Amino acid sequence: MLPTRLLIGLASLLLVAAAPAVVPEHSVENGAVRLAGVGPDNPILYDNDWWFDVFDNNYLWAQASLGAANLRGNIVSRDMWDWEKGYHYSFEQSLGDAEKALKLARDSGLKNIPDLTRGADRVLARPESGRIEDTVPHPSDGSRLIIGEAKKASPEKPLLVIAGGPLTTVATALLTNPEIASNLVVFNLTVSDYGYNGKDGWAAYIVAKRTRYVDWGGGAFWDRDSVFTAKDFEALPDNPFTQDMKRFIRTDLGRANQLGDGAPLVWLFQPKCWTGAEVRRADFQGRALVFRPVPPGEQGDVLVIPKSATDLKACREEFFRVLAQPAVYGGTITPTTTPSAQPAVKLWPQLTDGITNHAGKLAMRCVVAEDGLTVTDTAWDTYQVPGCGKRWTVNMGAPMSGPLRNFTFPPQFAGLPVNLTIEFFNPDKPWEVKESYQEILLLGGRQTIGLPDWFRVPTNRLAYNFDEGNWFPSGWKLPRGKYALWQGAAKARQQDRGGQCPMYDFGFTHVSPAAMTPGGDRGTRERRAHLFGDNEWIPHDGARDTFSAEPTDPKNWQIEPWHHRADECAIMICNFEAPNYHAWRDHQYDAFADLIRKVRARRPDTLVGCWGVGVLRHSFRIFDSLWEGKPTGVTDRKGAQQWRQKYEHPEADLHPVFTRCGLNVGNPSVYWLNNSKPSQLYAFVQEWEQGKLARPEVPNILSTWIQVEFVDGYPLSPYRFTDARGRDRREDLKHQVPASATYALSLFGHCVMDGLQCWEIGARYSEDLADYSDWRVREHPPKHMLNGVETPVYYYLKYFGFYNFHVLGMWEASQHKDIIEADTRWEMPELWTSRNQVWRSGDERYPSFVNLHKEPLVRVKLSADGKELLVIACNPHNQGVEQVRLRRPGSATEYSLELVGDFPVIRQFPTKPANQ
Hints:
By secondary structure, the chain is α/β, with parallel strands linked by helices. Helices cover 21% and strands 22% of the residues. The chain has a 9-stranded mixed sheet, with helices on both faces. It has a 4-stranded antiparallel sheet with strand order 12-20-19-17, with no helix packed on it. A 4-stranded parallel sheet has the order 22-21-33-30, covered by helices on one side. Helix 4 crosses helix 5 (201-210) and helix 17 runs parallel beside helix 18. It starts with 25 loop residues before the first strand and ends in a 6-residue tail after the last strand.
């Protein structure tokens, strides 16, 4: 199993000549081992002695031929067997073996395979002193190739050396150029203490002690016929490359060697091939490198993947997934489930190359450099607003220092979507913003923060796409007692799955009747819920868009719409902003309570709530000090303590509408407000936790959606574009909630809290620009036939693809349902961060305090048997890469993780049972 903490952060991976070994930073996420900074897009060198006794080169070269592996070289190192007797095989025999393999591959149409490079031809002798530094190196073209490629790499994106033979060539490179150690991760299979790949034991010991080293098996090897048999190869195309594989698997050596030295290769492209890892100490005993358990309190040297922690089925499926593709041999490329490194993509705006304001001036235009991580706003210097300062933000974070010119995100941000917002503000009153603009980018590269391999966001359209095609897993369910309401529009392009509303296939427990989909079923009453407008139960003039009767007078409140909604939905939530409930008097409370009693008399099983009304009064969404019950605008320790104390007397903040009118489901609104407000997530969680303490039996379902609400004069973003008929159009838009915030709230909402009601928009929409209409000037929207009904549709002007992250959070909850459903409590752990390097305990763990310190919001939960710990963490203040250590209160056992920006993580760690 994994150790209980990640042993070291990337910041400390810089090695010096005599530095000790560094265990690769690792974690297990959803049953898959992951190494920080390691993925299929890393530069790779392959080093082997024999090329026809394993299938390793076949798989790796196939990936290179597909363009999926960044293979920089093939090194031939000598077989060191019987070196004490003058070597059993010559170097030329190993080289000739490799040359034959290379010819078979190229004759069969494989591309992108580098030429062979000569590596080590003799072992490294252990010096009498026993000191690594006294070892005499024997440089070769192979060791020089390793040095050259390592110097191009970095500790954060290292060179991967995958060795299927002795580690002599790698060790030589480390001896002659020790400074490259921090830029390497080496994979090997020693197989036994002094045999096979471990014959140059001193070289293996040098690698284990001087750089990051991963060993599959720790001395073990494959069982005969355990990964695949001859029958598995029959479906492969027929050519010289595959014919030799079909020959070899029928030999005794082929049946015995199985995947050979290739375990790291298939894992690299399918992390689920490895399900666990152990830290071991590297010792030199006799003539061999041996792996020993790490004594308590000591640090290990290498990461060992136990044979028992290998998913043989996943290895087999990944191997043949690649080798079976015609594109390997020059045919047509077949889509795969393994994502390849991607270039940077602009998700918004898609209609224009940049954002042009209403006056026709280019206000913002972000360009990403070839590295996929360096961003420049080409309008930063040219577009200014007189009298205003100019600043920019990433996602919902605080303003960044410096202009948005040649800003490079850390490598860990690769493949992640980011919202970049520019604001023009009053220098004397920085909270006053005059103009704001936003672009949304998907940075280049492949994400490494632990998202599942199949997950993606739309890059060529405006809306979510988890309901189209079969790439997003379906048919899963949320943990018991969790709610997920879909209250929104149907998409004109939405497709059915299984003859029902597609939302039910994606974990939603309840769907609004208004969310009908083309050809889809709305579901039965027990799976329907709806938030209906106050214009349904108070007389309203639709033509003039105004109420035709006084909305605050209970005499005008109509009960029939309530009965109608109760008849069709298990959960009904009314919007009652118009009755101005904030200023109600006793007679209005009494009348509203009576209305609900009458509804419940007919439908006693109906859960009744009101939009924006949770168990508690609305929080101020900030953690500043309070004076005479009002916020002072000052966020300090006093304010943090005042908010912390609310946990002691939660009932003091009970919402009067909730308590006086007999509601039995809470629906507090948690809209994201304005920009640069990282404190909001902390406040959302505090409001729910406090409400749960006050009324533990009441479901409190937070209401959220995908756009930011603007308040206190925050300006809409001016946007100008040309419609399908060539007409100039002008819109004022709200900003998009970042993917990071959407994902964080979804994880906390569906794992820790009772669930979320998810808004979209109130009408059916289209992604065809020809369907655009301006509702502000009452242009008539076009109509489409949906379920046999002619229905108005509206062009989806903004990018709403981050709904995929909302559903991803639900899916993650379903993957951890055994722990979430366990009869154990969610806890606030003690925290340590690389930012502040102080352990936070006691009150310092509560939301208002971690927000004050700009530290992560973390919740942990034990499995029923105490053997696993589920961790959800997010730091909305984080703008770089942060290392986090945590421990349960009263426990000395530490768990470690890495946070990239304000993106959340969900991790499951093995732990000892509570009674040990």
